[in-house]
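Lecture notes, structural biology module. Today: joint structure prediction for complexes of two components.
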Amino acid sequence: VKKSAIQRFDEFLYTPVDPLPIGLFRIAFGIVLLFRFITLCLEFNPLFTPDSFVAWEVARSFGQSVTGETVPYYRWSLFGISDTTLWARLLFIGYGISILAFLVGWRTKVAAFLVFVLTVSIHRREPILWTGGDLVIQCFAFWLLFVPAGAALSLDACRRAQRGGSPQVARAWGLLLLQSQVALIYFSTFLLKLFEAPAWTNGTAMAETWRLPFYARPWSHVLLGVPGLAEAATWGTMVFEIAFPLLIWSPRFRPWLLWFGVAFHLAIELTMRTGTFTWAMLAAYIPFLTASSLHHWVGDALYRRISMRCGPAKP
Amino acid sequence: MTSQTTPHPNSLAASRGERLLVLWLTVTFLLCVFSAVPNELTASHGPFRRAARSYLRTLGLDQYWKMFVGNDWDIPQLRIIATTASGASSDVTHLCLHQEALYRRLLDDHVAVAHIVLARGDLPQVLASYARALRARLGADVREIRFEQLFRTARLRRGSREPTTVVPLAVYAWD
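The predicted structure, tokenised, for the full assembly:
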């Protein structure tokens, strides 16, 4: 019987999927969040209290312009409730607890909501500090509100299994959202480089980047002495950033792109200081892993054990 | 997508609420795509583009992935000078723990700071806030805090160790 287009569309979006990749992503993302939280705590006083370098009255109206155009928007932040050190401390304590709860999958939906709200609030309290990695974190914190992040590898799933309750259902559209965000990051930055950055189209961008004292690692200038390497890295980056969003949907190309992407981001980390960007992006690759590849890597016996204990119930 | 899925025993039909949620998320994501492409490609959609960005930024879904896309690779470096009532000046840049973030911000803009001050309403306010916080740390004896910008392009491009240009950025004075 031929399926109608609507049926195919329904299958595409609503087919139940194994939630283990989402659970694994939640853990990796939670670890990135936790490390970032610890580094923020070390600079709590100069960054987030009323005596910080950027006062709240400046921060609250900051960034109404994007790329030179005026973009007014509602700048909500929990820091707006009270500009006191006590309130800032309470928000940070709440943020730390939420991240831990999210990481272990305890009350995951509530934890995910608090992680998102507090991430945005903290970003808006200190508007200058953030880099691309922080933006990656903020976007994924938003999409994670809508996927069953606690359906596998979580205390919630263990508790449900012990009580004999029915497991949470993960559907294809949730994974698709997480995957599409990664693809959009590469696609967008490719277009920006192509249309707004001559250094990328004339092949000199990586050489210039390796000279930037605030981004380059101390040893990166050595790479400048290797003939053709900077040009190859520039063009290679452009090719990868357009290939990924176009070809990642093909099962044939996906493993190659993911492996290349891992090498690409580790190379960035080895040569440039980009904060949490590398680790957030590598964590964001996990939703592209299939349940079968997890079977393959983890081993069938261990996979079944994990699934039985803290994954969805098996038939 | 479906090729990577594993049949689940608890296959449920999507409810109306779930379908509406997916519809909203799809529209939101498409707006993310629209807002993330360069201005040149959507120049004729100015008002709609601004509305989309307002909506996305309100949600917390900022999507502007401009990693290292600058046209101007001059490297600005911030220097902060404090002057006391007796006229003694000292470099207090190191006290500004947050300075690296400001460098990054300036670096991201990839334009001369004078242009930033003219084009972006934010920066003077930020520097004023910096000045107030620094004075609170240094004491009321401080009469002036001066922000300067060092451009080190020549050092980077030709191997010189000296900055080529010092550009006054902002001065904040107290009586």
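Point to remember: The longest helix of chain A spans residues 172-196.
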